[in-house]
Design brief:
By secondary structure, the protein is an alpha/beta fold. It has one domain: Protocatechuate 4,5-dioxygenase, Chain B, CATH 3.40.830. It is built from 9 helices and 12 strands. A 6-stranded mixed sheet has the order 7-2-8-1-12-9, with helices on both faces. The model has no long low-confidence stretch (mean pLDDT 97).
Amino acid sequence: MPVLFVGHGSPLNAIRENDYTRAVLEMGQTLPQPEAILMVSAHWMTRGSFVTHMPHPKTIHDFSGFPKELFSIQYPAPGSPFLAEMISKQITVPNITLEDSQWGLDHGSWSVLRHLFPKADVPVVQLSLDMRQGAEFHLKLGEQLSFLREESVLIIGSGNVVHNLSAINWDENATPHDWAVEFDEWVKKGIQEQQFIRLAKEVTATNSARLSNPTLEHYYPLLYALGASKSPSHIRFFYEGIHHASLSMRSVILA
């Protein structure tokens, strides 16, 4: 299986039709059919590592102030307790705890999946982000998860390379901030050159980096995808662009 990182941006992308959502839909149509999906979303932040273990994960509307239409969306994909148990047994450091009731699929997962797999017929589990840990931890855990690709599991990271809500401009045609463009291009080059360790170690090294990610939860899912890709022979950015001045929607497939 290939590995994906998808920039998800505003929850409104779940119900919009635009260049970005069309690109994600088209990507879904070209992917091999997976047996299951492992999602790593920016929106499940925990102390420790957890994986959803329920047979029917609920659709979580973890936002406010958006149209009612958005809150009515359900993504009724089944879960996969078997996959969750496989992950928990295979990876012993860190310990990955099975989570049966408190979570499900947050909007970082379903807003992407409803374009990639609109039928919601592929089992999905979601892995949390241990926010006590630094960037290199998340890259290395991604590397450990790469065995799932041989089991026909599609690994998807969902976040944003640039995510600064305090600098957002909701104008659809807002000009991206210079620092957002600079950091987004630095990440693009690092992915192309497969400098994955550098992308983890230097994520806060420059002013543009710190402005682009005041907090790192939206960046970490990229590191899971890079780690799981294991020296890919094929890299393609299937969407590039910065929305609302400070949200990079850069999305990439690694195979």
